[in-house]
Hints:
The structure holds 2 protein chains of 2 kinds. Chain A is an all-alpha fold. Chain A has helices at about 5-15, 25-110.
Amino acid sequence: xxxxxxxxxxxxxxxxxxxxxxxxxxxxxxxxxxxxxxxxxxxxxxxxxxxxxxxxxxxxxxxxxxxxxxxxxxxxxxxxxxxxxxxxxxxxxxxxxxxxxxxxxxxxxxx
Amino acid sequence: xxxxxxxxxxxxxxxxxxxxxxxxxxxxxxxxxxxxxxxxxxxxxxxxxxxxxxxxxxxxxxxxxxxxxxxxxxxxxxxxxxxxxxxxxxxxxxxxxxxxxxxxxxxxxxxxxxxxxxxxxxxxxxxxxxxxxxxxxxxxxxxxxxxxxxxxxxxxxxxxxxxxxxxxxxxxxxxxxxxxxxxxxxxxxxxxxxxx
Lengths: 111, 196
């Protein structure tokens, strides 16, 4: 490499490395951008939490509703079962009486 | 246009009402029942349609054999209608009321298998079965004692062998005995008739 071209390179390098003042408003823009990003991040987190809370609340409401419905169904089923047993008990009672009467009549007829 | 819609809705309702009524073969309570219920000291009233019986059957989860048999029995039924009146003293109902009750439930489809009247005690017993193509499709019991009156109406296919399995509900197995007794009596009558 020639001495002239070395000088040019040095000059170029010096100019490049020379300390230059930041453009006006750079610091403000930088701070604004940083705080904006932070606000956006915070907002994103808040939305995420809100969605999570809404999902949990919805799941709780749905789960509670299903549990309540199941419980109601169980209660109604048990009541229906008891009614069937009551009906069969009355039927059983009536049939026993009929049978008793027929048996006693049969005996009386034989005698 | 509004009038047409109203007419259409009325017509639809008019057509739907008998269709809905047909879904439940169980009778409406007899007017006599109100009077009996008013005088009774203890009343048991159970009316279960096909849907309700199917629903109840779901909750008979077969913990014991009797419950399994009961489930099998009620699953095929169309309805159960039961009334039991207990009175504190005698003479709370008349024979006319009993006759009214019997006539209310009795239709041409029903054949009486037991009909008994005891003048001394005032006890009456009626057992009728509904026979369709030789199969029992219903059973009606009207049992009246001085202080107690029971009405039982079971609609649907009733298999006597299934009833006999219900040992926990002992009386239901008695239906088999009732049948035997009535058949026995009929045979005796036939024999007597044959001898003469």
